[in-house]
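User: Sequence in, structure out. Go.
Assistant: Echoing your sequence, followed by the structure tokens.
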Amino acid sequence: MGDAGEGLIDNESRIQERREEFERERDERRARDAGNLKSDAEKESLRLARTELERQLAATTHERRRAALTEAIAELNRRLDAKK
């Protein structure tokens, strides 16, 4: 009778270990997904900023302003390339 009780205890501990492993994996997946969402939002923000600067560049005739906008667009492009 003692052996049957030990089997149940072993089985329960394996179930508990599996449950903890599942929770750990789930937490890791959620952390990865949250990181991806943040990265995607940052990329979208950079793309929107670049689009706005390109619009301003197309409408600007002053050479110094055009140079500043061109440099800013180049910097945004560098940041976007680094995120890939």
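User: And one key feature?
Assistant: Helices lie at 2-59, 63-83.
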